[in-house]
Amino acid sequence: MLELATIGGTAPQTGTALADSPLAIRGLTVSYGEKPAVFSVDMTVEPGRMTAIIGPNGAGKSTLLKAALGIIRPLSGQVQVFGQPMAAQRSRIAYVPQRASVDWDFPTSVIDVVLMGLYRQVGLLGRIRGTHRARARACLDRVGMGDFANRQIGQLSGGQQQRVFLARALAQEADLYLLDEPFAGVDAATEKAIIAVLQSLRAEGRTVVAVHHDLATVPDYFDNVFLINTRRVAEGPVSTAFTADTLQAAYGGRLATAQVDQLSRALV
Ligand code: ADP
Ligand code: MG
What is the CATH number of the domain that holds 222? Predict the structure, then answer.
């Protein structure tokens, strides 16, 4: 159990042992140019919990996830997944990227997108069988998209597309789910459907880490938070790490008055 929030980049680590953590990051620095986008970040994700990654625009949230996944090569630092190097554990991770980063202009059916989540089981040259299709359909049902299996992905609304990407991640049957702003630009019904699925993953003992931009829903949706503004600002349970002080430290003057009002209600 994590009890104490850790504040600052060099604070002592939390109670989760490194080998037990689904995602443990040490000294991670990532740079696209001269200025680091992520600087010397430590993170210890607690197993079986839902953790929100929070911070202002450009704080390095997406970069942190991409570097953890090996999509971007860091300047320095280590990433361990379930106590082993990430490359050895890649099949245990499902990733749902920020929606805007995916271009669906080419014709692909919804069921084919979900089947992509099964490619490890199917094998690169393996044949898709009825059992694979049945599993893909079950995942679509779980996100409320069972009736859309044969539609073109490009013809769906943003919220519907997001549900399909989540179905693809479900098909992977991963132990660690990494999602980049899964609720951005989706309707209220989709947000509800997605959070219900994430909570059911947690109930199955899986670990969920999501970049989240709506501060007001953090205490309702998440167990733990990780606040970042290039450097780690705070990490721990919502009750201790998600406070007016840590938010001020992460957002500084960028926290609008309206958000502060909203938050003072969320933080009671
Ligand atoms: P966040 O997800 O918190 O909004 P990002 O991780 O996307 O932040 O970006 C962190 C910083 O790195 C920003 O200053 C952004 O402009 C910069 N950045 C992100 N991706 C690239 C890229 N591919 N090339 C150059 N700079 C980038
Ligand atoms: Mg981002």
Answer: 3.40.50.300
Q: Which of 62, 72, 178 to mutate to test the pocket of ligand 1 (most atoms within 8 A of CB)?
A: 62
- The preferred substitution site among 28, 30, 62, 63 for testing ligand 1, maximizing ligand atoms within 8 Å of CB, is 63
Name the band, by pLDDT with cuts 50, 70 and 90, for residue 10. very low
Residue 113 lies in a domain: yes
Residue 47 and residue 92 in contact, taking contact as beta carbons nearer than 8 Å: no
Number of residues that this document lists for the chain: 268
pTM: 0.90
Tens-place pLDDT, residues 120-146:
777 766 777 888 899 999 999 999 999
Q: What is the pLDDT of residues 86-109, one digit of tens each?
A: 989 999 999 998 875 566 677 889
For residue 264, being part of any structural domain is answered with no
CA distances from 83 to 80, 89, 95 (A): 5, 9, 19
Domain that holds residue 128: 18-250
Average pLDDT of the chain to the nearest whole number: 88
263 within a domain of the structure (yes/no): no
Residue 182: CB within 6 Å of ligand 1? no
How much is the average pLDDT of 214-218?
94
Q: What separation in Å is there between the alpha carbon of 192 and the centre of ligand 2?
A: 21
Sheet containing 84-85, strands listed edge to edge, beginning at the edge strand earlier in sequence: 36-44, 24-31, 76-81, 84-85
- Establish if 262 belongs to a structural domain: no
Could you write out the three-class secondary structure of 101-147?
Answer: HCCCCCCCEHHHHHHHCCHHHHCCCCCCCHHHHHHHHHHHHHCCCHH
